[in-house]
Design a protein that fits this description.
This protein is an alpha+beta fold. It contains six helices and four strands, in the order E-H-E-E-H-E-H-H-H-H. Strand 2 and strand 3 form a beta hairpin.
């Protein structure tokens, strides 16, 4: 079935290892995934406003304005899968299924989904970090430290801009919003 693509919309994309197996085994694997992201971005420009790469899955809050998101994800997942299979002499299917993508259309939803993504390392069975900014494979580090050099495909301006545009958002800034966000408020589809 063809996926709907709207170039102006952000999508919450998730991808998981087959049988929930780990697809990132060490620091080098995370680096290979970021290399695949850069490679894909050179071919098809996209913007990510939140990401979190966990051991057995990843989350992207991504917009692809020029080509269908399926094209972007096909290159990214194929590229990383090839790296992984070569590195570990791995045979078989790396990913559980095609990527899951849901449209995120309004500012409050973008804030909520991005907060959910950024809280992932804190909400696992074995907590991976004591603070969101301490987890190295998440975009939250660039929100917490705006002087930190970020990849060219990361936009850290959009989410904070909502606090000036929408006074009904009760938080002083994006980081405060993320820290106070509770997943229970989020859609059960994202859990």
């Amino acid at each position: 079935m063809r996926r709907v693509w709207q170039p102006e919309i952000f999508y919450h994309v998730t991808m998981r290892g087959n049988n929930r197996q780990n697809i990132f085994l060490n620091e080098g694997d995370f680096a290979l995934f970021f290399r695949a992201l850069h490679y894909t971005n050179e071919k098809y420009s996209f913007t990510i406003i939140a990401y979190c790469i966990m051991n057995n899955h990843y989350h992207l809050l991504i917009r692809s304005p020029e080509v269908p998101l399926s094209n972007v994800m096909a290159i990214l997942n194929k590229r990383y899968s090839e790296f992984f299979k070569r590195k570990y002499n791995y045979f078989g299917q790396l990913y559980e299924t095609r990527f899951f993508a849901s449209m995120v259309v309004d500012p409050i939803s973008l804030l909520n989904v991005s907060s959910y993504i950024h809280q992932n390392p804190l909400r696992t069975t074995n907590t991976l970090a004591d603070k969101m900014e301490a987890y190295p494979y998440s975009s939250y580090q660039y929100y917490a430290n705006q002087t930190k050099t970020k990849p060219s495909f990361i936009n850290t301006q959009l989410l904070p801009s909502f606090f000036k545009q929408y006074p009904e958002i009760v938080a002083e800034d994006y980081c405060t919003y993320c820290e106070n966000f509770r997943m229970e408020e989020e859609s059960p589809l994202l859990v």
